[in-house]
Amino acid sequence: MTISTTLFETPGPHNTQRTVELALAAARELGIETIVIASTTGVVADCVLEQDLTGLHPVIVSHAYGFLEDGQNEMPQDKRRRYEQLGIPVCTAAHPLSGAERSLSNTFGGTYPVEIVAHTLRLFGQGTKVCVEASAIAADAGVIVPGRQIIAVGGTGNGADTALVLRPAHTNRLLKARLDFFVCKPLRPLD
User: Fold this and answer.
1) Rounded to 5 degrees, what angle do the CA atoms 107, 112, 113 make?
2) Each residue of 5-29: pLDDT tens digit?
3) Closest by Cα among 110, 163, 109 to 134
4) For the CA atoms of 153, 10, 97, 180, what is the dihedral angle to 10 degrees?
5) pTM for this structure?
6) Which of 36, 113, 131, 177 could anchor a disulfide with 169, C-beta 3.0 to 4.6 Å?
7) Judging by beta carbons within 10 Å of its beta carbon (0-12, 13-18, 19+), is residue 2 exposed, middle or buried?
8) What's the rounded Cα separation, in Å, for the pair 146 and 132?
9) From the centroid of its chain, how far is CA 88?
10) What is the pLDDT of residues 59-71, one digit of tens each?
């Protein structure tokens, strides 16, 4: 294997194009077919779809409805329909590393176990947490196989700055997920 980890000087959306290129190159070199793409508005998904995806199986994971505003989703419906017409699954569900626990901590204060897992993953960068979480959502939706290596693409805020070789797990077995290799990530997470 000739893949090495690429470290970006700073996190953020300016790394999106390079992250996508590195993720797809790693998938091809390692013989990994499935690419899980965290994409809130479709910008990262569109960047992936502009590439040659021959032999690859992309899966898009969006924010849950109500993430910013009750009953609303940040991904425009026309983009969602376009992806689905292309045969690309778009998974939308509660976030395994926040979801109901965030409601409890916001209401009652304190920190709860799932939030501790999320904060621990953020030690490696926000994108690492996003990749693990998006992969669990895709596993729960039945569109990827838990335990089988995938490439996961996520980011810090907007865009993508992290790609991992990951063996995902369902949410109810989240601690069985394994991060095998960083393809790329920011050198330093946000403070």
Assistant:
1) 160
2) 999 999 999 999 999 999 999 999 9
3) 163
4) 50
5) 0.92
6) 177
7) exposed
8) 12
9) 15
10) 999 988 767 778 8
